[in-house]
Design goal:
alpha+beta, about 20% strand, SBP_5, 6-stranded mixed beta sheet, signal, 7-stranded mixed beta sheet
Length: about 600
């Protein structure tokens, strides 16, 4: 072992010893005989239990279990269905929405859920800057929100809003939250916390675990299980080992190698379905701030749509699926909305369809005046600069190294030299979303049943300010045609007509190529069939378990009851120690980074 390796191993051992007392205490908490406990492994930790601040997928999942919403996706169709709002109507002006809050919903402290709770929640997001962090854009078009009585909520919008019934903001109890004070500093980790969802948090250790218990007063009826535990793993391999050993019962959002490591394991169901995520290349086609001032140092050739089109033709998407995703993805012959959303998915056909065609890519560049030099690398038409570009990827995501190797070879075939630039997550987000210091970058987004938010990441208004603040652009895109279509779909309340407009928006992204979708990763999960006896995905027809856009799978699940004695407290202690111990071993073996498997902000976000 090297001296550095020994120091890192010692550091890891110190961290392990520091947390062992907590995990051993957990291990000594034997569940009562007959208790049904399901333990979920998560490959990221909660960023906040405050629903106004939290942005990570794991946090959003927990908030779906804790709180109710106005509406939720129907488990069969994914279209809006009643939750805390049992019914709603829209006025003739298309600007006024009236929701009736159900009478049988109540908070876990016994008070009824009222329209005042919903009005306070939305008004807080509208008026308090700190409260905008998680879902601020969801209320940008709200003019006013009022409760005319305990059961009637009235929302008036500035313009018609077709996505009104897809609002992602959890409703919190006014009588609790109005006493909080500074929302930006409140972690919501004082228990018992008042909620109205199927589960309520009862114990939490930051970066380690959270325990939730079934809510007996949930308006749909209590869940079938007694407790739901979420264990946070920093090491994906340790999480897989934990599932095989039985320390946890379910894990989702796996990469292809992690998923394949479950093959042949007894009592484990491998769950492989279409996913809700699109992976794509972000092209720096001339990054600008929101006031149209150039920013960054993107290669000028990428401003030319013909160069972006040639790059698109150079990519063999099926090869990426086979070699990078081990066959566990769908080639992207469409744009940023994945095919699991059957209504909204757009597939390129005819002249729009871009296939792997190196000869065509070379001809496009030849005809546009980009000539190859003696080294095979092209220059700009004026001969002043070679087509030498950077490909920005994440330091800690090995699959992106493989992707870079393929792209480097394919772009070399068309006269573009590509070099890989590795960045940690924070630097990656800064350079590709604010400062524009990139040429081509890997990116992606998890898409909700209503795709408005992912489409909005390509609006002019999402570009950063001159001071480096922004609303979350994915491409620095600002296109009049795209903007016009976005506004049209926003105000079109006829679902079928709106779908067609959204497909036109996707076609524009596909043909103009500020981003180039490369594949749609499958939803890869695993669970123990000897513990979980039933669970319903969303959508019910081959949908998602963990990480979906509803609490339905975890409300629906049932499990085997705990044995009488001699077992740990739901396995939290054992699984957590295994995860940390595995990280310590990796440190001592070669100094590999003891760090969370961070991904892009888009992947961590809901």
């Amino acid at each position: 072992m090297t001296r550095m390796g020994a120091r890192l191993a010692a550091l890891g051992l110190t961290l392990l010893l520091a947390i062992l007392p907590a995990t051993q205490a957990l291990a000594g908490q034997a569940p009562a005989t007959g208790k049904k406990i399901v333990r979920v492994g998560a490959l990221q930790a909660v960023d906040s239990l405050n629903p106004f601040l939290a942005v990570r997928v794991v946090s959003s999942s927990i908030h779906r279990w804790m709180y109710g919403f106005l509406t939720v996706p129907d488990p069969k169709t994914l279209q809006p269905s009643p939750d805390l709002a049992e019914s709603w109507e829209t006025a003739d002006d298309k600007l006024t929405w009236t929701f009736k809050i159900r009478a049988n919903a109540k908070w876990s402290d016994g008070r009824p859920v009222t329209a005042q709770d919903a009005a306070w929640t939305f008004n807080t997001v509208m008026t308090v800057d700190a409260a905008k962090q998680a879902n601020g854009p969801a209320v940008e078009n709200f003019e006013s929100v009022t409760a005319t009585d305990d059961r009637t909520l009235v929302i008036k919008t500035k313009k018609p809003q077709a996505s009104m019934l897809e609002n992602p903001i959890p409703i919190v109890p006014k009588h609790v939250w109005e006493k909080v004070g500074d929302l930006g500093k409140f972690e919501n980790d004082r228990f018992p916390a008042a909620g109205s969802g199927p589960y309520l948090p009862v114990e939490y250790k930051k970066d380690a675990y959270i325990k939730l218990r079934a809510n007996p007063d949930y308006w749909r009826g209590a869940p079938k299980i007694d407790e739901l535990h979420v264990v946070f793993y920093e090491n994906p391999e340790a999480a897989i080992a934990g599932l095989k050993k039985g320390d946890i019962d379910l894990i989702g959002r796996l990469d292809a190698p992690q998923f394949q490591a479950l093959a042949g394991a007894p009592d484990i169901v491998q769950w492989n379905t279409l996913g809700r995520r699109a992976a794509y290349l972000q092209i720096n086609h001339g990054a600008k701030t929101i006031d149209d001032k150039p920013v960054g140092d993107g290669h000028p050739a990428l401003k030319d749509p013909k160069v972006r089109q040639a790059i698109h033709y150079a990519i063999d998407k099926q090869a990426l699926v086979d070699q990078v995703q081990n066959g566990l993805a769908v080639p992207a012959d469409g744009s940023v909305i994945p095919p699991m959303y059957k209504d909204f998915f757009w597939k390129a056909e005819g002249d729009d369809l871009v296939t792997h065609d190196v000869a065509k890519a070379n001809k496009i560049l030849d005809d546009a005046g980009y000539k190859k030099g003696p080294d095979g690398i092209r220059t700009m038409p004026d001969g002043e600069r070679k087509l030498e570009m950077r490909f920005s990827i994440h330091t800690e995501v090995p699959v992106e190294d493989k992707l870079a190797q393929f792209l480097t070879g394919w772009l070399k075939d068309i006269g573009i030299a590509l070099t890989t630039k590795k960045l940690d997550s924070s630097k990656f987000t800064e350079e590709t979303g604010f400062t524009g210091l990139f040429d081509i970058a890997i990116s992606g987004w998890s898409v909700n049943p209503d795709p408005e938010e992912v489409l909005a990441t390509h609006l002019c208004s999402r570009r950063p300010t001159a001071g480096g603040e922004g609303g979350g652009t994915e491409s620095f895109y600002c296109d009049p045609e795209y903007e016009k279509l976005y506004q049209e779909q926003l105000t079109e309340l006829d679902r079928a007509k709106r779908i067609e407009i959204i497909k036109q928006m996707q076609r524009r992204l596909y043909t103009d190529a500020p981003v180039i979708a490369i594949y749609y990763p499958n939803n890869l999960e695993g669970y123990r069939k000897d513990k979980i006896t039933s669970i319903t995905p969303i959508p019910e027809d081959k949908g998602l378990l963990y990480g979906g856009s509803s609490s339905w799978p975890f409300y629906s699940l049932d499990a085997v009851a705990a044995p009488a004695a001699g077992t740990s407290g739901g396995g939290l202690g054992t699984g957590l120690v295994a995860g940390i111990a595995a990280a310590v071993v990796v440190l001592g073996a070669g100094g590999f980074l003891l760090a969370r498997r961070r991904r892009s902000a888009a992947d961590e976000r809901e």
